[in-house]
Amino acid sequence: MIINELEGKVKGKGxxxxxxxxxxxxxxxxxxxxxxxxxxxxxxxxxxxxxAECAEENGLDVSGIEQIDPATFDKLDEMAMRMVExxxxxxxxxxxxxxxQSSNYFGTMLVEMGYADGLLGGATYSTAxxxxxxxxxxxxxxxxxxxxSCFLLVKGSEQYIMGDCSININPTPDELVEITVQTAHTAxxxxxxPKVALLSYSSMxxxxxxxxxxxxxxxxxxxxxxxxxxxxxxxxxxxxVSEEVASLKAPGSTVxxxxxxxxxxxxSSGNIGYKIAARLGGWEAIGPVLQGLNAPINxxxxxCTSQEIYxxxxxxxAQKSLGI
Length: 324
What we know:
- It is an enzyme of class 2 (transferase).
- Pathway: Metabolic intermediate biosynthesis; acetyl-CoA biosynthesis; acetyl-CoA from acetate: step 2/2.
- Belongs to the phosphate acetyltransferase and butyryltransferase family.
- This is Phosphate acetyltransferase.
- By secondary structure, the protein is α/β, with parallel strands linked by helices.
- It has two domains: 2-139 and 293-322, Rossmann fold, CATH 3.40.50; 148-279, Isocitrate/Isopropylmalate dehydrogenase-like (Rossmann fold).
- It has helices at 2-10, 25-36, 48-57, 76-87, 93-99, 103-112, 127-138, 173-189, 210-223, 237-241, 243-249, 267-279, 306-322, and strands at 16-19, 41-45, 66-68, 118-121, 148-155, 158-163, 195-199, 230-235, 261-263, 284-291, 297-299.
- β1, α2 (25-36) and β2 form a beta-alpha-beta unit.
């Protein structure tokens, strides 16, 4: 439902999204449909030979899709010089010329220089390979001290938001505050009114430990801030989603038993949690949606399908259109 609504909001707006792996059949299938449905204006990166060979092998027609070969782009000199400025003495001109031979760096520079509105990559690259150029070149948005991620979990008419599941390994209380604010903002842009639970193995002080302490401290800091969403914790997952359990473990909490947005204490629990929901619970996991960057850049799972790429392209376009 959320994806359909977002698709309606971005359709026909001509938002230009770069796809770093133009030689991948899943990417080609997705961009053909995106172009046909006028959802975005896709740009495939890769050599003409690579793109054509993939299309021919898979019976695909990409003739109507814009394609850019990083090796022959007519603004390569300008791009390399701009990258030198952005790297501020960390890379010289020769190093920058070499870096932009990679489609990840090249595509990120297309976004940074305004040739494209957003980027989607990672069908064959690691998360680090997609995010590193974004952090180095596009950087974080003003007022955003870090980049985080969230997943949208959908099953029928039900939907939940989970973060951070792919970026921050062991966030501090301050970082958890930022992750919570970013994730609640994304939830609102997705049309979900966030009721945010900060999760732990303890509910309202029922157990002790370093993890419990940092989640409790993050909640205290959030409740002192002028935020526009409900938040509570620390709490166990059953307390967050079950009214019956919440009445015993967190009586009086307006979030417990009704939470729809969940913040995990570390990357391990977040990554495991969303994958359990997806693989055993039958929830569709859409993401990771990157938060805090100065432009819409998102990562794909290397096991993604063309339909998942299609949906993440919609999310990326929505970040441009709605300011997610």
